[in-house]
Structures are given as C-alpha cells and as structure tokens.
Automatic annotation (TrEMBL):
UniProt keyword annotations, A-Z: ATP-binding, Coenzyme A biosynthesis, Cytoplasm, Kinase, Nucleotide-binding, Transferase
Protein name: Dephospho-CoA kinase
Main localization, broad class: cytoplasm
Pfam families: CoaE
SUPFAM superfamilies per record: P-loop containing nucleoside triphosphate hydrolases
Recorded coiled-coil stretches: none
Single GO term (MF): dephospho-CoA kinase activity
Organism: Pseudoalteromonas obscura
Pathway: Cofactor biosynthesis; coenzyme A biosynthesis; CoA from (R)-pantothenate: step 5/5
Subcellular location: Cytoplasm
Length: 201
C-alpha cells in the first residue's frame, strides 16, 4: 500500500486526465473518482439496484446500464432527488476509493477527483495538486471536447468551487495553459519531490 497520497484536482477542461496519464507513464498508481463513480452503478451493483428501485426501470438504457443523461435531467431541477442520490452514492464511492487507495503499490499514489475539496477527499491526502487554466480556456476546451453549448459548461463551472478558492487550498498549482513540454517538465520536478516525500514516511 502507498501510504503517501497526492490529491489531484482541477475544474472541467483543465486537463486532469492529461496530467494523470503522465504520472501513470511514470508508473504511479491512479485512483480516479470519476471512474469509481461509474463502477459503483454498473449492472448488478447495489448502487444501480437502489437507483432503479427509486426511479423505476425507465432510468435504464436498452442494454441495462444506467442512462446518465436521463438521470442528470431528473436530478438537475429536483433538489430532493439530488440529495437522495448523493446520500446513496457518496458513501459507496468513498468506500471504493479507500479500498483502491489501500491496494495501490507504487511509491506514492494519486487520488484524482474533480470535487476533491468539495467532497472533503483532501483529508486522505498528504498534499494536493491543482491543474489550472483560465476560465475562458476551460469553457473553450470543454465545448470543443464534449460538443456542448457554452451555457451548459458555465453552469457546470458555477456548481463547482471557484478557481480562486481551489488555488488557495491547493499545495501545488500547475499552469496547464502552455506547451505540453513545459507542463511535463514541471510534473517531472513534482514527481521527484513526491518520491522523496514518500520515502520520508
């Protein structure tokens, strides 16, 4: 088990995946909260069974998987449904994240979570790293990547902790609005720092 954990976060479109992919290429284990959130509602899981029991079979796609678009539209305007869903899934997701962190074998491991600070997951981490880009870059990248309107992206950003607050909370900040070679050089530098810190435990 890696006893030294780095919490990695960033707003939508900031480039978290590119950063975690780079750390992965350095043989660092990654626990991705977004992937865990999908795993706990796969067919046959208690998570999906509870959601179907609550919302009915209409919440399923033809192949028996969760229809995320439909679920999003249901909870978007309904605070009670959203609160019920969060109360169901957050403890399951947290437990699965902790299990995967305990199974990590690299010198240190990374917990990647877009809502790291919002959901209090930084308490499990020794240090935190924010992948950061300006707001207009976030919006442009996400619109291009997901082919969604600007308004939708702005709503997602508005629902997350502000960029300023994240910058204040993070131990390290990497500017991802520059050439990839520069970003990788800084990640390399941080990687060495994290390796040293993990050896000191």
């Amino acid at each position: 088990m890696s006893s030294w954990i780095l919490g990695l976060t960033g707003g939508i479109g900031a480039g978290k995946s590119a950063a975690t992919n780079y750390f992965q290429s350095l043989n660092i284990d990654i626990v991705d909260a977004d992937i865990v959130a999908r795993e706990v509602v796969m067919p046959g899981t208690q998570g999906l069974n509870s959601i179907v029991a609550h919302f009915g079979d209409d919440i399923l796609s033809a192949d028996g998987t969760l229809d995320r678009t439909k679920l999003r539209s249901i909870i978007f305007d309904n605070k009670e449904h959203k609160a019920w869903l969060n109360a169901l899934l957050h403890p399951i997701i947290r437990a699965q994240i902790l299990t995967q962190l305990a199974q990590a074998t690299s010198p240190y491991c990374i917990l990647c979570a877009p809502l790291l600070f919002e959901n209090g997951l930084e308490r499990y981490c020794q240090k935190t790293l924010l992948i950061d880009v300006p707001l207009d870059v976030q919006i442009a990248r996400t619109c291009n990547r997901d082919n969604v309107p600007q308004e939708q992206v702005k709503n997602i950003i508005a629902a997350q902790m502000s960029r300023e607050d994240k910058c204040q909370k993070a131990d390290y900040i990497v500017d991802n609005n520059r050439p990839l070679v520069d970003v990788h050089a800084e990640l390399d530098h941080l990687h060495k720092k994290f390796l040293d810190a993990s050896k000191a435990i």
